[in-house]
Design a protein that fits this description.
Order of helices and strands: HHHHHH
Shape: elongated
Strand content: under 5%
Radius of gyration: 22 Å
Distance between the termini: 62 Å
Structural class: mainly alpha
Number of strands: 0
Helix content: over 70%
Length: about 110
C-alpha cells in the first residue's frame, strides 16, 4: 500500500491531515490532495484539534513579538536611533519604526 493510500485510510478513521502525514512520513498538503481526490475529508473533531494546536502556537509567537516590541521601545526611549536598534537586534529599521508607531498609537 502506498503512503498516500495509507494516509487516506488514517484520515477516514478520524485522524487530521497533519496527524496522518506524520504517521506515514508525508507533507500534510500531499495528504490533503490525496484525500480530496478520493472524496475523503477530515472530521470536524480532527480539524478542531489541528486548529487548537495552531492557535496555541500563535499565542507563543505573539508573546515573543510583544517582548521584542517592548525592548525596542525601551531602547528608542533611551536615546538610540532606529538604525542602531535595528543593527543591535538584527531586524530591519522599518520593523523598529513599526513597533514604535504601534506602541505610541496604543498609548494615545
Amino acid at each position: 500500500m502506498s503512503k498516500a493510500r495509507e494516509a487516506v485510510r488514517l484520515v477516514a478513521q478520524g485522524k487530521s491531515y497533519s496527524e496522518a502525514a506524520k504517521a506515514v512520513g508525508l507533507d500534510w498538503s500531499n495528504v490533503k490532495v490525496a484525500c480530496l481526490r478520493r472524496g475523503v475529508y477530515q472530521s470536524a473533531k480532527a480539524e478542531a484539534r489541528s486548529m487548537n494546536k495552531s492557535t496555541n502556537a500563535g499565542g507563543k509567537f505573539r508573546a515573543r513579538r510583544s517582548e521584542t516590541a517592548a525592548l525596542v521601545c525601551r531602547m528608542v526611549a533611551s536615546g538610540m536611533t532606529y538604525g542602531e536598534v535595528a543593527n543591535q537586534l538584527n531586524i530591519s529599521r522599518e520593523r523598529v519604526a513599526g513597533y514604535v508607531y504601534r506602541s505610541r498609537k496604543a498609548s494615545a
